[in-house]
Amino acid sequence: MPENLAWIADAWRGASPGAADLYITCARGLAPEQLAERMADHEPVEVGPALTIQEAHRMVDLTQIYCVGRIGQSGDWSFIVECVGSEGWALDPAASRGAEVLIFDPRPDDPPSFFRYLADGEVQLHFELGFGYDPAGAQPDLLRPALEAAGVIPPEGSIDDLLGADEELLPVEEKRRVLKVVGEHFGLSLPRQVIESGRLPAVVTRTSPPSSW
User: Fold this and answer.
1) In angstroms, how far is CA 109 from the centroid of its own chain?
2) How far does the chain reach from its first CA to its final CA, in angstroms?
3) DSSP-based three-state secondary structure for 149
4) CA-wise closest residue to 172 among 111, 90, 110
5) Which tens digit of pLDDT belongs to each residue from 110-141?
6) DSSP 190
């Protein structure tokens, strides 16, 4: 059953295969197959049988298949969860034409993880997770009021520390609160049990190495 997005921060810290590299991209205004097509480095994109995350991992051979995603729908949002790697961080903002796109990238090998919001063909908001708050994009203050209300960041212009030295948020708790705010703002929830333990239709998203490799 869908739930708030705080679980993503916990999943990225998990010990199960693939837990630390759940690369999640969501879109409102695109069907799951359309989202996969805009993200893939090849065409046509074929939707295969439903797989678990472990089975999707085993498809990656690093010769012809570099990234595999599993697709689904939650409310108004389509989603694709890639394993082993992704290039969501470098996704062309044009992929958001006629839609909204949210990217949750753990960057396990090159932290920090980050959140990015694309719409109207451009980056609307981008910031790192768990390492303070330094937003960029066309709407850098989009989530500021909600993040202030959640106790993640101090009110803008405040000269006082948000928390005392003994109460400073741990990075994982900061991530949990930020992700919860993101989900509430965009009306997005994702089914943790299905994503982590269930089966979802699989698509190959990369047949060549991501440029970041």
Assistant:
1) 16
2) 35
3) helix
4) 111
5) 888 999 999 999 999 999 987 778 999 999 99
6) B
CA distance 50 to 210: 24
Strands laid side by side in the 100-105 sheet: 47-51, 200-206, 67-74, 77-83, 23-28, 100-105, 114-119, 122-128
Q: What are the backbone angles phi and psi of residue 104, rounded to the nearest 5°?
A: -120, 105
- Alpha-carbon 73 to chain mean position: 15
Question: What distance in Å separates the CA atoms of residue 42 and residue 36, rounded to the nearest whole number?
Answer: 10
pLDDT digits (tens, 9 = 90+) for 179-201: 999 999 999 999 999 999 999 99
pTM of the predicted model as reported, rounded to 2 decimal places: 0.91
Which 3 state secondary structure label does DSSP give 146?
Answer: helix
Nearest to 196 by CA among 70, 100, 87, 107: 70
DSSP letter (8 states) at residue 37: H
9 within 8 A of 175, measured Cβ to Cβ = yes
The answer, yes or no, to whether the previous bond of 191 is cis (omega within 30 of 0) is no
Contact 159/205 with Cβ under 8 angstroms?
no
E-state strands within the chain? 23-28, 47-51, 67-74, 77-83, 100-105, 114-119, 122-128, 200-206
With contact defined as beta carbons under 8 Å apart, do 91 and 30 qualify? Answer: no
What DSSP assignment string belongs to 52-64?
A: -HHHHHHH--SSS
